Amino acid sequence: MIHFSQVSKRYTNSREALTTVSFDLEKGEMAFLTGHSGAGKSTLLKLIALIERPTTGEIVFDGINISRLKNSKIPLLRRKIGLIFQDPNLLNDKTVLENVALPLVIAGYRYQEIGKRVRAALDKVGLLSREKSRPNTLSAGEKQRVGIARALVSKPPLILADEPTGNLDPDLAADIMILFEQFNQAGVTILIASHDLRLINQLHHRRLTLKDGQLISDEEGYIV
Amino acid sequence: MTQVNYSIQVPRSIQKITEHLRAILNSLGQLSRSPWASLLTFAVIGIALALPLSLFVVLKNIQVVSSSFQASGQINLYLQNNISDEQLHNTLVVLNMDEGVAKSQYISPQQGLQDFEQNSGLNGSALNLQSNPLPGVIVVTPESSLNTLQIEQLLSRLSKLPSITTAQLDLKWLQRLNAILAIGHRTALLLMIIFAIAVLLIIANTIHLTTQNHHDEILVIKLIGGTNNFIRRPFLYSGIIYGLVGAIFAWLLVDIMVGFLQNPITHLASLYGATYVMQGLGLSTTLYLIGGGILLGLIASWLAVSRYIYEIEPK
């Protein structure tokens, strides 16, 4: 699904954020990306979604070399990726339903189809009753789940999550992880960046560890 | 890779139309969320467009009035002193055979003196003169179909007739007026360009501020795969609406101005025994105004949004 080969990223006037990183993530895999803050986790995710471009090296996503993808092709790439951030970036002037519907509106789905899919996605994250609420009336955990529903609603083959549980207490964080595992069982490839080792240790998925921009370990997951 | 399931997506053409309708609703929503600010912007654009247009309307009216003067331009033919009645008769016959002449009238020196006394109010004083200093004059009215060049040709033909000393066509003042009007038109054009640039800047700045207010929304739409066109569209429609409504404001302003001046101008015309209905913008100018407003809005918003989108592209 994702192939990194000798990928480096240097921001202007700064040290290298990533140094010659190589790895493969297979279709249907679920993996954690860990490391201390500033190790390059966010940068790595941003390179996959082409929020940043690599300085050197090659990134292949879904059979396409995206390192040199034209700017005009980026929207179509992003429609294949569900992006989840620590701050879910919800739009407060729109309802929960409208927020989750946004990816379908952009892709030009039929009105009835949008309603059906949005309700299914909200149902999955347990927020169907809040569809008419404004995001600023929700708790942090609810907001994050709305963000997840928005990332899932167009059924992308890949989900990238950057510290999705960073703002949540341990119980809520565990709930979110269970959600991710459910999606993974449905066939979605998932890459989660997190420095919450306690939580990661409870789950037994593949773990990629970054340190100062270098990939220092790649531990296989196992089933308990 | 998931296959796009076309059965649940709308046909391309209908999708395009609904996307545009959505963008129009979106931009109307943006404008209605701050109605006073929007109204103020419409008014500023309207006034900026109305200023050069009203000058244009004034010039247009002066031109209409002056063109009716042009048609009534007369030629005065001054006769030699002491010509016989036969010579005068021959001259008049030859003159009236010219197809450029509509009408001619002979004014004898005696009659000229009387007219002068009456018009100048110097009754009796001229009688003190030893002899009548005025020559005989033939006043020729050219055919109204003649243009300026043909009138000039007629003038030179008539001046070569026997017994004529001088032929005079009093068009100098008209030429001067036309020269002044030409300067006026150029000034109006310059003002139009300057104010069009002003309108462009007003709309671009307004749209730029709106994009900043929608910074989060634009970023989110970009992150979930919205194309630049999708992001741009509502702002382009906002620009079009600013230009369109601003132009309608300008049109109303000029119309009100014309209506306001109509009565005093009718009164002035009636003092000259004429009727004059003031010319407004006219259909074609109104269409140009509205088309121009829309175009300015589109260009301004395109520039503002494109700059903004460029700033947030990955480097």
Question: Keywords, please?
Answer:
heterodimer; A: 224 residues; alpha/beta; four-stranded antiparallel sheet; 7 helices; 10 strands; globular; B: 315 residues; alpha+beta; Alpha-Beta Plaits; elongated
Q: Structural class of the secondary elements of chain A?
A: alpha/beta
Give the averaged pLDDT of chain A, no decimals: 91
Shape category of chain B? elongated
Task: State Rg of chain B.
Answer: 33 Å
Estimate the global geometry of chain A from the Cα principal axes.
Answer: globular
Proportion of beta-strand residues of chain A: 25-35%
**Major sheet characteristics of chain A:** 6 strands, mixed
Give the N-to-C terminal Cα separation of chain A.
25 Å
Widest sheet: strand ordering of chain A: 6-7-8-3-9-10
Helix segment tally of chain B? 9
Q: Into which percent range does the helicity of residues of chain B fall?
A: 55-70%
**SSE string of chain A, helix = H, strand = E?**
EEEHEEHEHHHEHEHEE
Number of strands of chain B: 4
Estimate nothing, just give the exact number of structural domains of chain B.
Answer: 2
Mean pLDDT, all residues of chain B: 84
Protein chain pair with the most extensive contact, residues per chain:
A-B, 34 and 25 residues
The span between the termini of chain B is: 27 Å
Largest sheet of chain B: 4 strands, antiparallel
Low-confidence stretches of chain B: 1-7
Strand content of chain B: 5-15%
Any overview of this molecule?
- The complex is a heterodimer of chains A (224) and B (315).
- Chain A has helices at residues 41-48, 74-78, 96-107, 111-124, 140-152, 170-185, 197-202, and strands at 2-10, 16-25, 30-34, 56-61, 64-65, 81-84, 158-162, 189-193, 206-211, 214-219.
- The radius of gyration of chain A is 17 Å and the shape is globular.
- Helix content of chain A is 33%, strand content 26%.
- With 224 residues, chain A is an alpha/beta fold.
- In chain A, strands 6-7-8-3-9-10 form a 6-stranded mixed sheet, with helices on both faces.
- The model of chain A has no long low-confidence stretch (mean pLDDT 91).
- In chain A, helix 3 (96-107) packs across helix 4 and helix 3 (96-107) runs parallel beside helix 5 (140-152).
- Chain A contains 7 helices and 10 strands.
- Chain B is an alpha+beta fold and 315 residues long.
- Chain B has helices spanning 12-33, 35-71, 85-97, 109-120, 148-159, 172-213, 215-223, 228-271, 283-311; strands at residues 75-79, 101-107, 137-142, 164-169.
- In chain B, helix 1 packs across helix 8 (228-271) and helix 2 packs antiparallel against helix 6.
- Chain B has 2 domains: 14-68 and 175-311, no CATH class; 74-168, Alpha-Beta Plaits.
- Chain B has 9 helices and 4 strands, in the order ααβαβαβαβαααα.
- Chain B has a 4-stranded antiparallel sheet.
- Classes of the chains: A alpha/beta (224), B alpha+beta (315).
